[in-house]
Specification:
heterodimer; A: alpha/beta; Transcription Regulator spoIIAA; 5-stranded mixed β-sheet; two-stranded parallel sheet; 4 helices; B: alpha+beta; Heat Shock Protein 90; 6-stranded antiparallel β-sheet; globular
Amino acid sequence: MNQKLQITSEQVGDSLVLVPLDRVDSSVARDFEDFLDARMQEGHTKLIVDFSKLGFISSAGMRVLLINAKKLKPSGGRLVLCKMRAGIREIFSISGFDHIIKICDSREEALAAM
Amino acid sequence: MRVSEHFSERFNVTLQARLRDLRNLAEMVEAFGRMHDFSQRTTFVINLALDELITNVLVHGQFEVDVEPLIEVELAVPDETAILVIVSNDVRFDPTADTNPDTDSDLLSRGIGGLGLHLVKSQASRYSYEYTDGRNRLTLEYDKP
């Protein structure tokens, strides 16, 4: 069984839209962190993570998002999340992440927030 | 990963210390949830609990020198409640104790310690913990799954 991180990326204007597929659980959180680090090393500072194809994320995956949002902020970059399913949106709310990372309903709204 | 008992009524799985078993386990929960008409939310929060708790044991759990790490997972649906039981043979650790996660600080000072267990507890209808015969036993209940 393939348990590697599955993620696609697409440049839209000056933002890079990342679409992780299926699951970002503890077993792939490190790969997710490495992937985001590599995009930042390439010079991308406006990152959107589109959750529309993501059925599951654990606190290990949320930690990666938090770390990268922190890394981007001092340089004026930004991490915006969008299109979360209700269950995932709920744990981001319980965690208080929705107060520190912008979460949008649509990709268009996320692009406009950049 | 070893599966026993009748899958249609309950499932009982014994895991070794491998994070890669989590995905197989998640697929079993999804199949079991479809069989019992679990809501998408219930399947999600049960898989969240398994990911957080099993990862906690595998990454942070301490085991006696001569103990082979083992984790047993049982999921059943008697009546209108899904009951998830996770048993592990690491040294005593109560995941129901208050973890005081940081949910208020601003972005740059925000920490994430204890968040996973906080999420697990917040999503369960009830939970309980006991330590008997050298094993940690956590029971999580989800009403109207």
